[in-house]
Amino acid sequence: MTSEVARHLLFQSHMPTKTTCPSSQVSDDEQKQKRENIRSLTMSGHVGFESLPDQLVNRSIQQGFCFNILCVGETGIGKSTLIDTLFNTNFEDHESSHFYPHVRLKAQTYELHESNVQLKLTIVNTVGFGDQINKEESYQPVVDYIDAQFEAYLQEELKIKRSLFNYHDSRIHVCLYFISPTGHSLKTLDLLTMKTLDSKVNIIPVIAKADAISKAELQKFKIKLMSELVSNGVQIYQFPADDETIAKINASMNGHLPFAVVGSMDEVKVGNKMVKARQYPWGVVQVENENHCDFVKLREMLICTNMEDLREQTHTRHYELYRRCKLEEMGFTDVGPENKPLSLQETYEAKRHEFYGERQRKEEEMKQMFVQRVKEKEAILKEAERELQAKFEHLKRVHQEERMKLEEKRRLLEEEIIAFSKKKATSEIYQNQSYMASGSNLKKDKDRKKISNAQVLEGGSKRASESMRAGSLLYGAQLEGESRRARESLRAGSLSYRAHPLPQH
Amino acid sequence: MDPLRQSASPCSSRPSSPKTPPCEMLGYVGIEAVLDQLKIKAMKMGFEFNIMVVGQSGLGKSTMLNTLFKSKVWKCTLPGLAMPTPQTLQLKSVTHVIEEKGVKLKLTVTDTPGFGDQINNDKCWNPILGYINEQYERYLQEEILITRQRHIPDTRVHCCVYFVPPTGHCLRPLDIEFLQRLCRTVNVVPVIARADSLTLEEREAFRRRIQHNLRTHCIEVYPQKCFDEDINDRILNSKIRDRIPFAVVGADRQHLVNGRCVLGRKTKWGIIEVENMAHCEFPLLRDLLIRSHLQDLKDITHNVHYENYRVCRLNESHVLPHGPCWVNLAPTPPGPSVAPGPSKACTQAREDSDDN
């Protein structure tokens, strides 16, 4: 053991000399620290790290903030108007139609500035929710969208070369669920949707268009809704009550859920001010009046007090749950079969080997199949070639025979012609002799007849021989053509066969 | 390793995403309250900071730590007392919790007694690199668990203060070797130790020479030029870069000067006040480390150094045979370039265990 190389790592706790614990430490904190061998120190002067929170805040300001809201509710229930009112601007949006066959989600991102805070706000709207006749598939697109955002983040986190600080976080931080103000109870669709979403996202239910309910009915409605949610086990977002500064206000707000809200961007003159309100013949509903609706409470809770907590819950609870489920689904575990801790990498490696093995096997299979097919095809083509060759030979033979026959015939014909011309010559001689003797017409007639016969014969024989020649030529051409075609097809077959080369073994 | 290091700047001011039209708000909404929410959350959770001091013995490392945090972070080792100079390089860590105006800071300091003290100092940086990489490894293992903790304890070294002995000449070969290796893994802040043995002119000359040495050997100390975000950062950081390495003096005794109680060193020819800018540059170091750049140090460690380590680690793991438990071992290729530490230290440990 070389002395230079060995190294020690000690976690030491010093002898208690002059260190005293500051009185503000709680006793169980002390215990915990003692267990971890951490001592607390008092400082004899000002060090200056109280600026740490400011440094953190400055960095966050530089990076900018990101907040994503999902609005789920029926068409026309006032989602866009409420968002406009909440953030006090007019986001570009037009009314959606009621006739969509499926539920779609539409996401839009806006950049808001307030003093030195940059907020990247993404609003996701459900378009066509609750409009269909058959609403069984209504909530699935919403769940899919939320999962897709988690998946995107998980993919980024699992990459080897990743850039998480640069990543535009699109995970949904809060879901505003709009309940329509019937005054009776939750609709089945609402209940189902909230039950599916409560483990994936922070849900804040709101009663929309609250100016349609009177105050007494509203109270009963709220109680009914909350009891239904509780009895069905739906976990809506509870405002955190662990920090003293905001615990009281959060706890009281928890009692006001679900918030009954009214949204409006129109301004109406009330008294001597212009306020956001909705004007009816029987009165004016002021949006920011706490007696009229809970809008101010919603804005307070959502933005001013708990925005950071919503983001944190999304990241530490919902995202971690999704991640755990997803990784377990893929087959990773933390503890192996003998209860020894397994590392993610080992499992991943095992899976990778498996996958490669699988792939190799499939490749081999495909190769085998290909080779086999090629062999078969080759055999077939060879057969065809042989057949064609045989046919060609056969045709050639037939052709030869025909030709010989024709030659025979021709020879016979020519012999006949020669014999005939001989006869003709001798008959002419006779004719001259007999003409010289008597000069009779009979002979002339006979001769003329003979001559015409001879001519007819000659013409006939000529025609016959010509036709025979033509016929033999034609037939020969036919045969030639056929054999050429056969040869060509054979060549083409063998070329195409050669164009797909056999794999090298 | 270098192309990896230029990967990305730590805190980008605008996360990239397409088509985000800016919107005018017609009135006050209350978005800026999120800053207060952040502060409350941070105060509740507390902060963590891990600092490492490296240098030969007798350069005043422990005293410097005590001066920085104005408390007995470390018991100063006086020469001649019970503990002999260690024969090997050991790393010792101590964790403290200090609180100031409601802000809790969990401070971990790591000392390296025995660094550069032997006759043959070859490869004396390996244990240090091993320790740093082990902390990265620990964090990585926590991060890739299926069921993760809510808040992963951060033991990664955020800053390494390197003490240069005040020779007055230039950087020694040991310094250069060490700095070259360490700058790629951790934020390094070099300081001139015991600067009261140098006059002001000698300090300036020494500083220039050190800066020249650093440039020649391409050593990028903190604050690194490539991570400057915008023009303000650059201006601020160039001022700091101009004064690096700071000439510091440490002291933990208080003396009376002009009726005030100050920390200082008393000598026959005067009292050297530690917090006096005319005497030494300790306030600059303290401001850099604590008051202005602490969060930045942590960010660069997390976003750059840790990510680089992670990339190397995940890339090489798939050629490994499976090692025991959570530490995957790899035989690193021999060479002067920095290889991920735990592998080397652990293979040597394995060899040692085989020997024994």
TrEMBL record, chain A:
Q: Name one GO molecular function term.
A: GTP binding
- Chief location category: other
Q: Gene3D superfamilies from the entry?
A: P-loop containing nucleotide triphosphate hydrolases
SUPFAM superfamilies membership:
P-loop containing nucleoside triphosphate hydrolases
- Residue span(s) of domain Septin-type G: 63-329
In terms of CDD domains, this protein maps to: CDC_Septin (cd01850)
| Keyword Calcium applies | no
Protein location: Cell projection; Cytoplasm, Cytoskeleton
One Pfam family of this chain: Septin
The segments labelled Disordered in the record are: 485-505
Q: Where does the record place a coiled coil?
A: 367-423
Q: Name one GO cellular component term.
A: cytoskeleton
Keywords assigned by UniProt, alphabetized: Cell projection, Coiled coil, Cytoplasm, Cytoskeleton, GTP-binding, Nucleotide-binding
Q: Which family does it belong to?
A: Belongs to the TRAFAC class TrmE-Era-EngA-EngB-Septin-like GTPase superfamily. Septin GTPase family.
Q: What is this protein called?
A: Septin-10 isoform X2
Q: What is the lineage of its organism?
A: Eukaryota, Metazoa, Chordata, Craniata, Vertebrata
TrEMBL record, chain B:
Please verify whether the record's keywords include Cytoplasm: yes
Which domain of life does this protein belong to?
Eukaryota
Q: Which Gene3D superfamilies match?
A: P-loop containing nucleotide triphosphate hydrolases
Localization annotation: Cytoplasm, Cytoskeleton
Q: Report the principal subcellular site.
A: cytoplasm
| Comp. bias (Low complexity) | 7-17
Single GO molecular function: GTP binding
Annotated Septin-type G domain ranges read 45-316
- Return the InterPro entries for the record: G_SEPTIN_dom (IPR030379), P-loop_NTPase (IPR027417), Septin (IPR016491), Septin3 (IPR008114)
The segment annotated Disordered runs over 1-20, 334-356
Q: Does the keyword Nuclease apply?
A: no
Q: Name one Pfam family in it.
A: Septin
Keywords in alphabetical order: Cytoplasm, Cytoskeleton, GTP-binding, Nucleotide-binding
List the CDD domains hit by this protein, alphabetically. CDC_Septin
Sorted alphabetically, the Gene Ontology cellular component annotations on this record are: cytoskeleton
Give the record's family classification.
Answer: Belongs to the TRAFAC class TrmE-Era-EngA-EngB-Septin-like GTPase superfamily. Septin GTPase family.
Q: Which PANTHER family match?
A: SEPTIN
Question: Which protein, by its recorded name, is this?
Answer: Septin-12 isoform X2
In which organism is this protein found?
A: Acinonyx jubatus (Cheetah)
